[in-house]
Design a protein that fits this description.
It is built from eight helices and two strands. A hairpin with a 7-residue loop joins strand 1 and strand 2.
Length: 243
């Protein structure tokens, strides 16, 4: 609340030191005591003998104004989202009173003006928050559903990533198998070419075998005649030597 930012501890001390506070000061203190759930002190009514009245001034001095810094902290950190209905019912009549007016109370005390403004602001906030609460509940429900959907989405994305990884691994394995198949097919074609050449070579060598056999036979026959030929040749050499 902006009004509290201008409120200082010295302003609160001034109110505490009042021995006979003005009506506006008492009214503002009553309001804050009710908001804090503090009980008044029962005192004799000076105007009606035998009757007791609620005196919030003594309660204010002992429990509200005693520690200005603590009071400021309580005002700034007030749990405005959980104001009891009993408190709202008690403070409601003050909202209708003409004398519970910040401008009028300011004439008596700057601190009490801020307290009155704060009390009215908390009262209005209660009903605004109460009207907004169903929407807040819907928002929380929507956020919970969103969180659940996001969790499911993340789980689905994780599974999708896992499947994609498996597909990529299978594609790599498939590509490797295709490459190996191509390599084997190339090797098979090369073997076929070599085998064909070998058949041709074997076929050619098969024809040469007969010819080599005849040559061996002729050479064998010639070998048996070699000694005689050598003798004839030697005789010819000896005979023709002197000439």
């Amino acid at each position: 609340v902006q009004c509290l930012k201008k409120l200082k501890a010295d302003h609160i001390r001034e109110v505490k030191q009042l021995t006979n506070p003005p009506a506006g000061v008492r009214l503002a203190c009553e309001g804050i005591c009710i908001m804090f759930g503090l009980k008044p002190v029962k005192k004799n009514d000076p105007n009606t003998p035998g009757k007791k009245i609620d005196d919030y001034w003594e309660t204010s001095q002992k429990e509200v104004l005693a520690d200005p810094k603590k009071l400021l902290d309580q005002l700034f950190n007030f749990d405005k989202d959980n104001i009891p209905d009993k408190v709202i019912s008690q403070i409601a009549p003050y909202m209708e009173r003409e004398d519970f007016d910040p401008a009028a109370i300011k004439k008596a005390s700057i601190a009490c003006e801020a307290i009155c403004l704060w009390t009215r602001a908390m009262y209005k906030y209660h009903f605004v928050a109460k009207a907004v609460e169903p929407k807040r509940a819907q928002l929380r429900e929507a956020e919970a559903e969103l969180a659940e959907c996001m969790a499911k989405l993340e789980a689905a994305q994780a599974r999708l990533h896992e499947v994609q990884s498996k597909i990529e691994r299978l594609e790599r394995d498939f590509n490797g198998a295709v490459a190996k198949q191509t390599e084997l097919q190339d090797d098979m074609k090369l073997c076929e070419v070599k085998l064909e050449r070998a058949h041709k070579l074997i076929g050619g060598l098969g024809g040469e075998k007969a010819r080599w056999g005849d040559n061996v036979k002729q050479l064998t026959e010639q070998l048996s005649l070699l000694p005689g030929d050598c003798i004839v040749a030697a005789g010819m050499v000896s005979y023709s030597g002197p000439f």
